Amino acid sequence: MAAFHYQALNGAGQEVSGIIEVATRALAGTGLRERGLRPFELREVATPVAGRQSVFRHAPAVKPADLATFSRQLATLLSAGLPLLRALTVLTEQTGNPRLRAIVTAVSQDIQGGQSLSAALGRHREFSAIYINMVKAGEIGGVLEVVLDRLATFAEKDLELRTKIRGALTYPAIMGLVAVSVVVFLMIFVIPTFVTMFDDVGVSLPLPTRIVVGISNFLCGYWYLVAAAVAGGMQAFHRVRRTAAGRRQLDALALRLPVFGLLNRNVATARFARTFGTLLGAGVPILQALTIVRDVAGNTVVSDAVERVASAVTEGEGIARTLHDAQVFDPMVTHIMAVGEETGSLETMLDKLADQYEMIVDETVAALSSMLEPLMIVGMGGAVGLIVTALFFPMFSIVETFD
């Protein structure tokens, strides 16, 4: 059983919060809505299973790559004809991650006690709602090995997408940090030394130098105000992010930003198509699949659109038409989904959409990376160059004085 800390709006529009204990995130959202609450944040909190806390306390985290490997190996063993318990025993011996090994052992014990695989996995927070529901659908349909293979592919593609984005933005982020550090070092430690020398000589400082010296004096004398402003800004951002209205505004802004807004929209499209297509391919009912997609969308604007789709499907309307009216995704996405609905190949169309938009994201990330790197270098060089130039202006006056 997992536990989720929620923040939600009640029927009077008041914000409430608390803890709900259910097997998956999707069930947490369903349970809250049954209570008349509209959740806008669900955060899983640690609730070790009784009697197993000492096993997990100091073990390393289970990474997505570990779960992908586990799913692929379990699917292979089941396809080879091994019984489930025997396959889990083999994986227990082969798994290198101590935490995952302990989890697999616990899952085996629960299955021996009469639980299903999905129920046993649902007791551990390392397995997401997508994972639990797909395994459950595989058990019901008798195609568990196929579903596990799909889960491994889904996890690998999702991890690959995240890794590419993170890798492309790491270098510019490091360059930005270095640039800020160099400028702050010059302002706090180097410029005051030159100011002392200029005062001793009695040279008149030109305007660019006075500006740089003023900034340096402010940073040296009021550094605590700068630190407080940065900390206050971060705290204010997190406070706004924790409110339903604030989070919705920030998520909408993320989709409208120049350049990065298009990247965020394409990432959301790829994630939506891959998740929805994988769930449908595993045999998860469409309404349940939409609920899971809504909860893992990562953007409240997209989540709201998916929720409207779920409501429309309940009333007998089409998915593509409702998504088109929401104007969250590109028209091409809804047109292709409409074709999939008409031809009964929605799952296939969603997989193709996911492949296409993941390729677009790759190209966008590569273009951003190649554009940001020289811009960061030019920016850092320009900032340092302006400071050095401002310091050299008085030097010319000193040289003329001695001449």
Unreliable residue stretches: 47-58
Tell me the major beta sheet: 3 strands, antiparallel
Name the helix and strand elements from N-terminus to C-terminus, one letter apiece: EEHEHHHHHHHHHHHHHHHH
- The CATH H-level homologous superfamily of the largest domain: Type II secretion system (T2SS), domain F
**Architecture of the largest domain in CATH?**
Up-down Bundle
**Hey, roughly how much beta strand do the residues contain?**
5-15%
Task: Explain the overall architecture.
The protein has 403 residues and is mostly helical. The protein folds into three domains: 2-45; 55-152, Receptor-associated Protein (Up-down Bundle), CATH 1.20.81; 153-403, Receptor-associated Protein. Residues 47-58 have low confidence and may be disordered. Strand 1 and strand 2 (15-22) form a beta hairpin. It has helices at 25-34, 53-56, 64-79, 84-94, 98-112, 117-121, 129-141, 144-201, 207-221, 223-242, 244-256, 260-281, 286-295, 300-314, 319-326, 331-343, 346-402; strands at 2-9, 15-22, 38-45.
